[in-house]
Design goal:
The chain is an all-alpha fold and 216 residues long. The chain has 8 helices and no strands. The two termini are 21 Å apart. The model has no long low-confidence stretch (mean pLDDT 92).
């Protein structure tokens, strides 16, 4: 398979998903979102990313968990399924943390927590009053995404000239930003523009995880 084709399919499906959000079209959303999710998995596979030893295998697990979360979050009004989707995304982030630790993360990466912890706290203060019964889940999720970015920094610090690790850090940061868009939509300001920004960031990040691993 041509290596760029799955990424192109993901981009087209993401565009269709944005139209679904604009038109509030459930069927188009239900079709385009799984296609985009499957495409980023196939993209990583076609690039050979998932064959990069243990780290590549764990990356595949993370991508699959993200795709499962995508599917579970399609019916937005179902509280139980929403929680399952969030749990799947949380585990996806944990898998990415494991990827970075498997690649080897410098202890200096912990220094990034000096920035990450205050930022995570600000996010928590922003969301805690509107999270309701999901407060514990939101708190845990914030901790996980901060640790994901910190571990990505640690992986880059140990090999600062490695282009793949630079791409992986970019993917982690972009994924973090997409999560903020989801949080804003769910717990703060419901605005379709959250999805216009968050969805391209999310699917772009997933594609970058595969690309970054293939370059590592």
């Amino acid at each position: 398979m041509v290596s760029w084709l799955p990424a192109a399919i993901c981009a087209v499906a993401t565009g269709a998903l944005l139209l679904a959000e604009k038109w509030d079209h459930f069927t188009l959303r239900a079709v385009s979102k799984p296609i985009a999710a499957l495409a980023f998995i196939v993209s990583a596979w076609s690039l050979g990313a998932v064959f990069h030893g243990l780290a590549g295998h764990i990356l595949l697990v993370g991508l699959v968990l993200g795709a499962i979360g995508d599917v579970l979050l399609i019916p937005e009004d179902n509280g139980v399924i929403f929680k399952a989707g969030i749990a799947s995304f949380g585990l996806s982030h944990v898998a990415y943390i494991a990827v970075f630790l498997t690649l080897g993360a410098s202890p200096l990466g912990i220094a990034t927590l000096l920035v990450g912890v205050p930022l995570g706290w600000r996010i928590w203060v922003w969301l805690r009053d509107t999270a309701g019964k999901l407060r514990r889940a939101v708190a845990g999720y914030i901790i996980i995404i901060v640790l994901m970015v910190a571990s990505a920094c640690g992986a880059l610090i140990i090999e600062p000239t490695n282009p793949g690790r630079r791409v992986l850090l970019a993917a982690a940061v972009i994924f973090f930003l997409s999560d903020l868009c989801v949080a804003r939509q769910r717990f703060s300001v419901k605005d379709v523009r959250n999805r216009y920004v968050g969805l391209p960031l999310y699917f772009g990040a997933q594609l970058l995880f595969g690309l970054g691993m293939s370059l590592t």
